[in-house]
Specification:
SH3 type barrels; alpha/beta; 516 residues; Ubiquitin-like (UB roll); single chain; eleven-stranded mixed β-sheet; 19% strand; 26 strands
């Protein structure tokens, strides 16, 4: 029987009952429904000038007859329907022609069914589409299926944590629970329900229209929780999680509406946090103000993996700040303006690797020792002129302004040594579309005339050799490359095919020497 607060589904749309009664001048009972999807509604509960109920959205409600809605079933009824019926075995056929079907034989399928029909052997349960709305009489779940460890109850019709707890308290082995797209009323005393979730390690609450404040209210229910997924909840502000979520290692807050670095800093009070997802938010900057550049922050002491793709981070200073995190080894930072404006993804990757010294994984790709050395040396040369102009070669060292922009530079100087004049980058911005007009010379073949050719600065030496093989008609010959600058006759060898022209700091107008 429906009551105010009950969850219902009608033609695939979920909603909450806000009113039960007569709507004048019609006869009979109506349900006033506030729909999860406000586009399904027609009004805010007002009909012909009378307010029967209220909605969060001004057009998120409508009236529906009782016989049009599905009020759901109890937990064991859904379990019986899903795992004790063998109708699905009879329907495993594939069409082989018009009006014909060929049975598909799944090896071991009968055995799987037999095991699943014995509910006490069930470890993983998914009841999608069966619309669980209520618990069973006390003791029946424990007697029927006591060993469930992993349960998928997304998009069901449970309306309160209290009702859910009547099921979970009898599942003492339950450690993974997905409650996405449910709307659960917050209990008056969450701590009293802690026994119902005493072994819960993973909880998924995606698309539940739940706020961070409500999460913290509920947190005493989950005393040993290690991973919490709360994506797509419209969360725009955070507050300090005092005394709760003390065991949490992984927090997924992606696809919300966070904007402030202050909100981010509140999460640093989660003492065990190792993995943090903040992708698809609106963060504009990251800063750890408790220490200056070059020192480790006392915040996020355990954080190893950070995902901040698809935000609004526009300043390299935010990337520099990540160097303060003492344990950070993995970062995903794609689709931020600071990354996109560089245009050349390889150069951008080099810059991030060089600025954050502990990274072993960047944008889901491993950072090898060889790549790190290459990136850091390229960084030294790229900003060498700025370092020199800021007093880098003087006894007192570079200015504070330079070190603010490049806090790792002095550490890299200690590692590689100061760049020579010939190694200094002549441009502080190398992009994919930067073109280098170069003179092609063949010193061992004096009859060949010099050729002027333009190359992208991001072109690898291997590709340059391929182009020159075609241009000089030297198929079958192994080419070696070097270059000389306009102001010097010193010859610089280019020995690594994977490196780019940008890596070797070649400037427009230099001469490329080709030998075979």
């Amino acid at each position: 029987m429906a009551k105010v607060g009950s969850r219902v589904v009608c033609h695939g749309e979920h909603g909450t009952v806000r009113f039960i009664g007569q709507v004048l001048p019609t006869k009979g009972l109506w349900l006033g429904i506030e729909w999860d999807n406000p586009e399904r509604g027609l009004h805010d509960g007002n009909y012909k000038g009378k307010q029967y109920f209220n909605c969060t959205h001004p057009a998120g409600g409508s009236f529906v007859r009782m016989n049009k809605v599905n009020l759901g079933v109890n937990f064991l009824h859904a379990l019986q329907e899903k795992y004790a019926s063998n109708e699905w075995l009879d329907n495993d056929c594939l069409p082989v022609g018009k009006g014909q079907q060929k049975p598909v034989v799944f090896v071991g399928l009968e055995k799987v069914f037999q095991e699943q029909s014995h509910f006490d052997n069930l470890l993983q349960v998914s009841l999608s589409g069966y619309y669980v709305s209520s618990a069973d009489p006390e003791g029946e779940v424990r007697h029927t299926c006591p060993n469930i460890e992993d349960m998928y109850l997304a998009k069901h019709l449970l309306s309160t944590w209290n009702e859910l707890s009547k099921i979970t308290i009898e599942l003492s082995h339950l450690h993974d629970l997905d409650l996405s797209e449910n709307r659960l009323q917050i209990p008056d005393n969450p701590s009293a329900l802690a026994n119902a979730f005493s072994n819960l390690r993973l909880l998924i609450l995606n698309k539940c229209a739940i706020s961070w404040h409500q999460i913290l209210q509920c947190a005493p229910m989950w005393p040993v929780l290690e991973e919490l997924n709360i994506r797509c909840n419209g969360i725009s502000t955070l507050s300090r999680p005092d005394g709760v979520l003390l065991t949490l290692k992984c927090l997924k807050l992606g696809d919300n509406k966070l904007t402030s670095n202050e909100d981010l800093l509140h999460l640093s009070y989660l003492p065990c946090l190792e993995v943090l997802y903040l992708d698809d938010n609106c963060l504009t900057d990251i800063a750890f103000p408790d220490v200056v550049a070059g020192h480790e922050t006392s915040m996020f002491k355990q954080l190893m993996r950070l995902f901040i793709s698809d935000n609004l981070i526009s300043d390299w200073n935010s990337v520099n700040e990540l160097e303060k995190l003492p344990c950070l080894t993995e970062l995903k930072i794609t689709f931020n303006s600071v990354i996109e404006k560089e245009q050349d993804s390889r150069t951008t990757r080099e810059l991030v690797v060089a600025r954050v010294g502990g990274l072993r994984m960047l944008n889901l790709m491993p950072v090898s020792k060889k790549e790190r050395n290459k990136a850091e040396w390229a960084y030294v040369r790229r900003f060498g002129l700025e370092w020199q102009k800021a007093g880098g070669r003087e006894e007192k060292g570079p200015s504070a302004e330079f070190l603010q922009l490049h806090p790792r530079y002095q550490k890299l100087i200690e590692k590689f040594g100061a760049p020579e004049e010939s190694e200094l980058q002549t441009s502080t911005r190398i992009m994919k579309d930067d073109l280098l007009p170069l003179y092609i010379l063949c010193p061992d073949h004096p009859t060949r005339k010099p050729i002027k050719k333009t190359f992208p600065s991001a072109m690898s030496i291997k590709r340059v050799k391929g182009l020159l093989t075609h241009l000089l008609k030297t198929k079958g010959c192994e080419l070696s490359l070097s270059y000389v600058t306009q102001n010097s006759d010193d010859e610089f060898q280019m020995t690594t095919d994977e490196h780019t022209l940008h890596f070797y700091a070649i400037a427009p107008g230099n001469s490329l020497l080709v030998r075979w």
